[in-house]
Design a protein that fits this description.
Structural class of chain B: mainly beta
Oligomer: heterodimer
Radius of gyration of chain B: 13 Å
Largest sheet of chain A: 7 strands, mixed
Largest sheet of chain B: 5 strands, mixed
Number of strands of chain B: 9
Distance between the termini of chain A: 36 Å
Distance between the termini of chain B: 35 Å
Order of helices and strands of chain B: EEEEEEEEE
Shape of chain A: globular
Strand order of the largest sheet of chain B: 1-9-8-3-4
Strand content of chain A: over 45%
Chain lengths: ~110, ~110
């Protein structure tokens, strides 16, 4: 299995809802990432997990809460989001976190906040 | 902010080679040059990376100048499916991908 899967593909939520995005990989990768991509903009890094521990938080608001239950799974819990949080949320994984490790991206979850 | 600069757009005829340039004016000695692309509404796709030497794989070739201040990604026989935004990125010990605006390559029939 050489892919990163993300569910759901699309999500519509209200500002008072709580929802979660899921990302999974079975390549034995030990680093996993969340990115946010607004329309017509490049992806922006949000979080990095290395060996199931959070190693980078790019000053993301607390309404986004990442979780890495095991080495294959990465979640992003969403609560009290704003309409400006509507975006494509991308997950990626890599064998490790050295600069020589390419990242493999999932197809993304397109989130709309009403 | 992204450290690389790329032309915003390029066109290429189908079947011809596409040569995409990138300037790495502030690259340091331990930083790798990476290329990714993103086809519309899909996740980015890794293409190739290198440190000092030129590299080739089944997708593309990467040419890095001797001073490492510029690189060129070469798609030898572009197809319509190669239409995408292409990003070049310098990655060092912090292993963070910082995407710039990239180059929109349009392959025309």
């Amino acid at each position: 299995d050489t892919e990163v899967t993300q569910t759901p593909k699309h999500l519509v939520m209200g500002m008072t809802n709580k929802k979660s995005l899921k990302c999974e990989q079975h390549m034995g990768h030990r680093a996993m990432y969340w990115y946010k991509q607004k329309a017509k903009k490049p992806p922006e890094l949000m979080f990095v997990y290395s060996y199931e521990k959070l190693s980078i938080n790019e000053s993301v608001p607390s309404r986004f809460s990442p979780e890495c239950p095991n080495s294959s799974l990465l979640n992003l819990h969403l609560h009290a989001l704003q309409p400006e949080d509507s975006a494509l949320y991308l997950c990626a994984s890599s064998p490790g976190t050295g600069a020589y490790n390419e990242q493999f991206f999932g197809p993304g979850t397109r989130l709309t906040v009403l | 902010d992204a450290k690389t600069t790329q032309p915003p757009s390029m066109d290429c005829a189908e079947g011809r080679a596409a040569n995409l340039p990138c300037n790495h004016s502030t690259i340091s000695g331990n930083e790798y040059v990476y290329w990714y692309r993103q086809i519309h509404s899909q996740g980015p796709q890794y293409i190739i990376h290198g440190l000092k030497n030129n590299e080739t794989n089944e997708m593309a070739s990467l040419i890095i100048t001797e001073d490492r201040k510029s690189s060129t990604l070469i798609l030898p026989h572009a197809t319509l499916r190669d239409t995408a935004v292409y990003y070049c990125i310098d990655i060092g010990s912090n292993y963070k991908l910082t995407f710039g605006k990239g180059t929109l390559l349009t392959v025309n029939p």
